[in-house]
Structure formats: structure tokens, C-alpha cells
Specification:
By secondary structure, this protein is of the alpha/beta class. It has 13 helices and eight strands.
Length: 349
């Protein structure tokens, strides 16, 4: 009798331990007991969530050009790189205002367990409305932030004055990619990243466990493996980013509510099954009253240049700028922010 009872009990205990291992801990919500403090200005979204933001450049009421910046994978509202590299003279001359925000689950923005590419685009629209940025504003996304720009081009194109994608991270499972081209680019990644993205796409419920276990190789981006950076990237990291007092602080700040609702959920969304294919998008500015730009380094080890070239060929209305010798961190290079903004805002090459 005891043996017959012990078998199902042990099975239940084993399943419980397994479930606890693969289940992420609950997030530490900013402002909640035991959670990080609230230090940023925030807006309350229509669904009750809070979104934290940070303003750069001119006062928004005086600015001629108003820009919403979307940060990358391990970043936050403190990393609006194009804004941080602008000279005061450039800001005044062009009348530039930039607002960066913490994506849901990052920094001091509430997590959104049902976050999608569409929901983030609608968050961006609501941020623009609550800050009074007008009927149209510019959007710029860096790295994983570029995926949010595809969402804006799909879901809120009428609100855009222009858009920039800087080294936008590719979803290898977009259906329009030729299988051989996507497969070749995919296998250029470190083995750990191949597995991490495969898990995020095919078994998202295992994403937390995969990126926290120690038995198999996981995301080299989360681990900050130096092998994923080009020669130019390493130079920029040594000469610029290592001297930025906010940079190291921002990496910890970005995931202070927990890695799952920030980094891991971004992986699940970014490399999951999208509800649209960016290759099917139409030109949001058929009357040339705005422009879309994609900037890419040809030595980027995180984002394959071959797939960006394919995108530029399929969507000829995108102004494609390929930078020789540049890696993934080129937006941090001296003068790059002004070059990108001048092209977007004035059309000057």
C-alpha cells in the first residue's frame, strides 16, 4: 500500500521541482514593497501600467523636431545614444527634442506579460500623446529597439514624421526570408546564441531556464561575450563606453525588476512568430512627406549585413546606409548621431 502511494507522490514532487526550475520568479515591481524605488517621471497608460521616460535636447514646447527613441536589449531610457552624442549647437540649430523611455519590464516601466510588437507600438503612440508631441513625431530604434520601429511602421504609420532603424536586430523566422539566406546568417552566430534564439522561438516557456542554467551555452549577448564585437566595437567600448559613468549603472538598472520581464520577454517577442511580415509593409510616405532610414555596419557580428541588404532590396522606399568597417556599436562613434539626425531631419547626406 505504501509503495503504491509513494510513487504518485514522488512523481508530483518531481514535477513540482521541475516546474519551479523552469518558472521565472515574479518581477520586483518598482514602488512595491521590496521593489526598486521610483525615481523617473512616468506616464500612466490606458491599461493602468506606468511607463518611465527621460527627456533630452530642447524643451519639447520649443522644439521643431520631436523624436521618440527606443533602446536596445540590455539598455534603458538612459541610453538614448543619438541624443547623448549631440552637441548643444546642433540641438539648437535643428531644434531637436528627444525622449527615451524604459520598455515594459525594463528600468522603472511596469512589466507587460502580454507584451507584443503591436502593444509596444501603441505604447509609443500613447507616450507621444501624453507628452503632447503633436499629430506626428519621429521614431528611432537601436538594435532590439529597431523591432519596435517595424511595429510603428505597421500599426501607427499615420503618426510618423520619419523613422530610423540603427543596426536593427533581425528575426530569422520572418517568412519572406529565403530559407538558404536566413539559415546561412543564423549559423554565423555563436552556438550559444543559436540555441538561445531557437529556444525563444520554438519553446518560449523554457526561455528563463535556458538563459539561467549552467549546463548548455546560452545567450552570449546577455553574458557580454567579447567575441560578439567587431574591432570597431571593441575600440568604441574602450575609448567611449568605458568612460561613461551611466553605462555600467544602466545595464543593472535595465533589469532591476527581473531579467525575465525585461531581457527574456524581449527575446520571446523579438524572435517569436510575428503577427505580420515586415517585408509586406507599404511605403508610409508615398508623397515624400517623410522618410525611413536603415543604418547598418558591414562588420556587425550581431546582426548579419546580408539580411539587411535583402530587406533594403525588398523595400526600396527604405533609405539604406551601409557603413564600411562598422560594427554593432557604430551609433556611439563620434559625430554619428548628428550624421543620422541630419539625414533624417533635413535630408542632408
Amino acid at each position: 500500500m505504501l509503495k503504491r502511494i509513494n510513487v504518485p507522490v514522488l512523481s508530483i514532487q518531481s514535477l513540482s521541482r521541475a516546474y519551479a526550475t523552469i518558472s521565472p520568479p515574479p518581477p520586483k515591481i518598482c514602488g512595491s514593497p521590496g521593489g526598486p524605488p521610483i525615481t523617473a517621471p512616468r506616464i500612466k497608460l490606458r491599461d493602468g501600467r506606468y511607463l518611465a521616460y527621460k527627456e533630452y535636447g530642447m524643451p519639447r514646447e520649443d522644439a521643431k523636431h520631436k523624436i521618440i527613441f527606443v533602446h536596445g536589449f540590455t539598455s534603458s531610457r538612459h541610453d538614448a545614444v543619438v541624443a547623448k552624442t549631440l552637441s548643444p549647437e546642433f540641438i539648437q540649430e535643428l531644434g531637436v527634442y528627444v525622449v527615451g523611455f524604459d520598455k515594459p519590464g525594463y528600468g522603472e516601466s511596469d512589466p507587460h506579460p502580454n507584451r507584443t510588437v503591436k502593444s509596444l507600438a501603441l505604447d509609443i503612440e500613447e507616450l507621444g500623446d501624453q507628452l503632447g508631441l503633436g499629430s506626428k513625431f519621429y521614431v528611432i530604434g537601436n538594435s532590439m529597439g529597431g523591432q519596435a520601429i517595424w511595429g510603428c511602421l505597421k500599426y501607427i504609420p499615420s503618426r510618423l514624421a520619419g523613422a530610423v532603424l540603427m543596426a536593427p536586430v533581425i528575426n530569422y523566422w520572418w517568412p519572406s526570408f529565403p530559407a538558404n539566406l536566413s539559415r546561412e546568417a543564423y549559423y554565423q552566430q555563436p552556438v550559444g546564441d543559436q540555441w538561445a534564439l531557437r529556444v525563444a522561438h520554438y519553446a518560449p516557456w523554457l526561455t528563463y531556464w535556458w538563459n539561467t542554467q549552467k549546463f548548455f551555452p546560452s545567450s552570449s549577448v546577455i553574458a557580454r561575450n567579447p567575441d560578439i564585437f567587431s574591432a570597431q566595437d571593441l575600440k568604441i567600448m574602450k575609448n567611449k563606453l568605458s568612460t561613461d559613468p551611466e553605462k555600467e549603472k544602466s545595464k543593472h538598472y535595465a533589469k532591476q525588476q527581473g531579467e525575465f520581464e525585461s531581457l527574456h520577454r524581449s527575446m520571446m517577442i523579438g524572435f517569436g512568430n510575428w503577427e505580420f511580415d515586415p517585408m509586406d509593409l507599404k511605403n508610409p510616405f508615398p508623397n515624400n512627406d517623410g522618410s525611413v532610414h536603415l543604418w547598418q555596419g558591414d562588420e556587425d557580428r550581431l546582426v548579419p549585413v546580408t539580411l539587411q541588404r535583402y530587406i533594403a532590396d525588398k523595400l526600396p522606399w527604405i533609405n539604406y546606409h551601409e557603413l564600411a568597417g562598422a560594427g554593432h556599436l557604430f551609433p556611439n562613434a563620434d559625430g554619428m548621431g548628428e550624421v543620422i539626425l541630419k539625414q533624417l531631419l533635413t535630408g542632408e547626406t
